[in-house]
């Protein structure tokens, strides 16, 4: 609790005013990732392996962009820092603990950028047009790889919540923004890797599935190279009686 309060306080001045209301959800994610570290390990290792595999295929390693970089847990950040000249990190929020860790580890070529990657503002401004939330990536010079790091389901969930209270959002906003993210990766002239949880199940101790849902809201993704399960909430996290297990896919796009 004390560490959480300290992280919140240290992050506050580093965060643009309009994004400060999001600090507490990042601190909660950070705290959960520490509590559930043992259960998240295989997922994080699988993500690292998938990123390392795509990096090994690249002819050039000048700049890489990580979308949903957050806590820097599911990308091999030391490898990216070593292999690439510049590492651009985009998220709604980068906690002070993450920035301090990067500084202590002398990862001097990381560039933290606060950005809403959902495209919701574009969708609100022009509901009839298809949003292009990743068009900004074309402005990054010498971009050789983009990694979307377990962000896409969060866009669906976040916009779904927003749609319940914001009348300006057109129908099917979550589905349209999920599709726009995939389309944005496919339009890039460099390879990309889409890591995303696609669905989840809530399972009780007898193995009975109490709830399941499609986190991609029916949007079809390109074929996966690998898939695995991620126990996002082990027993005791949400309830002593059930756990939440997500199904994750690794999807290389325009890769060799
Ligand atoms: C499941 S976490 C993945 C964290 C990260 N990849 C890591 O290695 O720790 C999802 C991340 O997506 C970010 N996120 C959610 N919605 C976003 C949005 N609209 N724009 C940018 N980032 C967003 C959250 O802040 C969070 O860091």
Plain-language structure description:
With 256 residues, the protein is α/β, with parallel strands linked by helices. The protein has a single domain, classed as 3-Layer(aba) Sandwich (Rossmann fold), CATH 3.40.50. Helix content is 36%, strand content 24%. The protein is built from eight helices and eight strands; from the N terminus they run αααβαβαβαβααββββ. Strands 1, 2, 3, 4, 5, 6, 7 and 8 form an eight-stranded mixed sheet that branches. Helix 1 packs antiparallel against helix 2 and helix 7 runs antiparallel to helix 8. The longest helix has 19 residues. It is globular and about 50 Å long. The model has no long low-confidence stretch (mean pLDDT 94). The structure holds S-adenosylmethionine. The site of S-adenosylmethionine has 21 residues, from helix 7.
Helix and strand layout, with pairings?
Blueprint: H1 2-11, H2 23-35, H3 37-55, E1 63-67, H4 77-83, E2 86-91, H5 96-104, E3 110-114, H6 120-125, E4 143-149, H7 152-163, H8 173-187, E5 192-204, E6 209-214, E7 226-233, E8 242-253
Parallel strand pairs: 1-2, 1-4, 2-3, 4-5
Antiparallel strand pairs: 5-6, 5-8, 7-8
The chain binds S-adenosylmethionine.
